[in-house]
Write a structure and sequence with these properties.
Layout lengths: L8 E4 L7 H14 L3 E4 L3 E3 L9 E7 L5 H14 L3 E6 L3 E3 L6 H9 L24 E6 L3 H6 L3 E6 L4 E6 L2 E4 L5 H11 L6 H12 L11 H10 L3 H8 L10 H12 L3 E5 L3 H4 L4 E2 L2 E6 L5 H7 L1 H8 L5 E4 L8 H16 L6 E4 L17 E2 L2 H11 L2 H15 L6 H14 L2 H16 L9 H14 L14 H16 L8 H10 L12 H24 L26 H14 L4 E3 L9 H8 L5 H15 L4 E3 L2 E3 L2 H14 L8 H18 L10 H14 L2 H35 L3 E5 L20 H7 L7 H6 L5 H16 L1 H6 L1 E4 L2 E2 L6 E18 L21 E3 L3 E2 L7 E3 H4 L5 E12 L9
Parallel strand pairs: 1-2, 1-20, 2-5, 5-14, 7-11, 14-15, 15-16, 17-20
Antiparallel strand pairs: 3-4, 6-13, 8-9, 9-10, 12-13, 18-19, 21-23, 22-24, 23-27, 24-26, 25-27
Helix pairs in contact: 1-2, 5-6, 5-8, 12-13, 14-28, 16-18, 16-21, 17-18, 17-21, 18-19, 19-20, 23-25, 23-28, 24-28, 26-27, 28-31
Amino acid sequence: MPSAIPLATYRLQLTADFDFDKAAAVVPYLKALGITHLYTSPVMKARKGSTHGYDTVDHSQLNPELGGEAGFARLSDALRQYDLGLIIDFVPNHVGVHFADNPWWLDVLEWGQASPHAVSFDIDWDLLPYRARGGVLLPILGASYGEALERGDIELRYDSGEGSFSAWYFEHRLPIAPERYGELLRMIVKEADAAETEAGKHMLSLAARYTGLRRPNRKEAPGFKAELKEIAGSADIIARGLAAYRAAKDRPAQTLTLHHLLERQHYKLGHWRLASSDINYRRFFDVNGLAGLRVEDASTFAATHRLVKQLVADGRLQGIRLDHIDGLRDPAQYCQRLRRLVRDAQGNTKPFYTVIEKILCEHERLPHFAGVQGTTGYEWMNDITQVLVDAKGLEALDETWRQVSNRPPRLAPYVKDARRRVLETLLTSEFTVLTRLLARIANGHYSTRDFSADSLRQALELYVLHFPVYRTYLTHSDPTALDRKLIDDTIERARAEWFAADEGIFDFLRDALTMDLLKPGRPPHSAPRVRRFALKVQQFTGPMMAKSLEDTAFYQFHRLLALNEVGGDPASTGLSIPAFHQAMQARAREWPQGMTATATHDTKRGEDARARIAALSEIPGEWTSAVSRWKMLNAPHLALHGKLRAPSATFEYMLYQTLLGAWPLEEPADAGFVERIQAYALKAAREGKEETSWLNPHEAYENGVNSFIAKILDPALSGEFLESLQTLARRVALLGALNSLSQLTLKATLPGVPDFYQGTEFWDLSLVDPDNRRPVDFAARHAALPQDAPDWHDLIQRWPDGRLKLAWTRHLLKLRNELPDVFAEGDYQPLEVRGAHADHVIAFARRHGRTAAIVMVGRQFAPFTQAGREWPAPDVFDATVDVTGYTARGLAGNELPLAQAFREFPAVVIEARAASAVRPARQRQRA
């Protein structure tokens, strides 16, 4: 049986082209590599053709496109044969909606609030303007509603197999409420001139049988549909009679008839642009096709987790990664329920590995949730990057960015501007829901009714603009001291920018956010509304931060792209070695079993592309000079039309970093590479929302950027530039490779579980998705695994082919498997480094009892490589590591010279013995 807590995980992206059987075929390779747990993208039924699986449409079945139950069983057998565990990515926060494949959503469209599944969706039914009845806005139209209607794009159809009616907009099915079937049948029979036929009489009789409000009701509807489809000749009459609803520009009566029918449904159709201002269901960020689930509802939780429980009970699932935990109304309650479900399924004899996708801002601490071992590791990825960059070089890059952008190298103004932009364009509808709810709360008591809706909106807007992290974690009880301080501090920052009369409006807002309004002795306010408001604000600030920071500011602030990573700080000044040690000691105490990632399906660039770009901090002068020269060489290729410059100066600067990060060394930069850079540039430009955006594409600018990239990468047009770029790229690639090996060593030896993203055992020079989800050649990787002890000298000579990284990965994982207690449970002890180059090595020991591992990792290699021109010789390192208290083969005395440690490789892990056993700090078990 695999260990309950993984020693190393490997992430696979499953698709129709890489299904359960393809994953099963990779299992022997993963075992040989040293992986203990396979970690997959979501496996529940997703939208057909999904390339990621996060658009789940049915939590109750395994994805048939991946091979369904039979394929999953074969994968389970393969994992069991090789003694590997399975961790799945699970999506509790949202489901794919629209189209015709989510049975819950279709039922809600058909029955509205009477649907048993209505409680599972976060819909504000009463918010549709100018409408007598509640409903849900469906922003699925590619044109205005009137235009789509008159063009005949919306078509009423009959399903003779079900006896049901639906409107269809291309691939989107819109069920008609059964209470309208009576009028439908009467109109259809009349249009078909079939009132005197036997089938027509039967259809009219059926319609007349269900009179009165809301009939046929949910209990009667199945019988109605069954009887309708059994009427001989009914399908033919309906086919002819539907002409009464066949809209077209030259058929005004039929168009109006269809319009009236659609207006009496439990939904309202609208142009997709309406989503930003009028949508009334909670989404995943601003994605209209992903609707939020209310897993706080016990029945919804039970239904969506039934298959998970069965897989755990069957012993086919050993862990779970929870996607977008910050989207949930009450993550603490959710995690408690999940732990209870797991215990019911497998008993309480062993832990069940549970990690959460949680993005922590700088200096933010992860709350403890029941049964959770930690996060998926973005914070540790950024710590590793920040300790590897050169802080002195960052100061020089600050000045370069100031000159390029004409703005100070401060991130905060970018983020604040991005928040305003997101609030005004992408998430306006969700914000409107909150402000209306806050206004209703204020209007509920005479002491607060004079706070106008407009003033409350402005106050809440200031609060959101100044909120510094993704969310608080209030429950129905009092906020924690940390959350209360966070709210209080944000209120004070918002109040400082309020120029109207305060008159207690911020005190009221603070008390609503903390739910202090409900305390005894306070004026009575609606408890359900106050709780709903406070908890919904938490669900809003997460998407607000993500869209503003990760998906906007990260694509505007380009001082050093290596720092622009999920959960990172692009304006970071780096991390000193003592600060890094302090963070890792805290991690060993608090979160020793969370994941450590250096690449995921969501990272902004591949781990080795990031390591290359980080190396620019080691040669900032040469980098700045190169950029100045490149701008002059490439100036003729800019698209200039009036005030338009494509690309902009800041975007051009970003492109040069991207090219160095992704530049291929083993093959020429062919047409495929040009297309990859162009696709990345389009996404980056639209995410940045400066000259163009997803909502309002600027075709001339985008074409100009495309043309610029094609021209500067064309040897016939830009030979001098390409020669200069390749010269610097070779040097940056060497520095980046050394950074990458240090990054890999740290990931594999620090407290936590190292996670390996698919294919990254070779150099990973990918860009943001979908570039980082391209097919992986696993056969080549398996064939390249060394059968015997690696010849490090030979591998170093041929380092560009990637086999060096693969061999080092396997070597590190072999050590983890040989010393499982040391790496899974051992403490973390910094080791003192002395000498001229002490600041160029990170040294520490992992220790469990008397068994230990001594780790030494180099950093900032430019001085030892002639700025990237040659592999570092071991004798250039002038430093020694104090290994007092440890013995190992080859250690003579209490000091280990770096030149000796690095004689084969610029990083080393030494199996050692501690002179005396040290009891590890007691860790709270999270089962």
